[in-house]
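Q: Putative transposase, please. Structure only.
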Amino acid sequence: MDYRRHRQPGGTCFFTVVTQHRRPLLVDHIEALRAAFRLVRSRYPFVIEAIVVLPDHLHTLWRLPDGDSDYSRRWMVLKRAFSSALPAAPASPSQARKREKGIWQRRFWEHTIRDEADWARHMDYIHYNPVKHGYVDSPAGWPYSSFSRWVERGVYAPGWGAGEPPGLQVVAGE
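A: Structure for Putative transposase:
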């Protein structure tokens, strides 16, 4: 298949990344995931504007450095670093040939943010996601999220998202 990815140097992108077969690994191994993010950011800097980690997938909003559009390399290194910290899952012959451990789905969803309204829509989607999936009643109750950072900055009220926020829009990629 021919995947066409939009690349905008210095752009801001929304991503959805999912574990293979939606295995609930991420929260149980959150320190390994954090270490993988630190490793990638030390080698290939970028800013994590927002993130939510759920048991079987994560959503994040990244701002890449000026002149840099290589988010694929960052995801490759991150997936590999996280996977190396976990025992291998049963691998298919194709996964074995590609030295994959069966931790992640091969692809990821990417969307380049177009404007401030698009940015706000994706921020809301990220932070409301644990409520949407029934893990908590309010984004403030989910510990694996950047929501509290944005509350401290005054972007969200502490009680935002207790009940579906008005105007919340579905975002592709899940």
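A: Brief note, in case it's useful. Strands lie at 12-18, 47-53, 57-63, 109-112.
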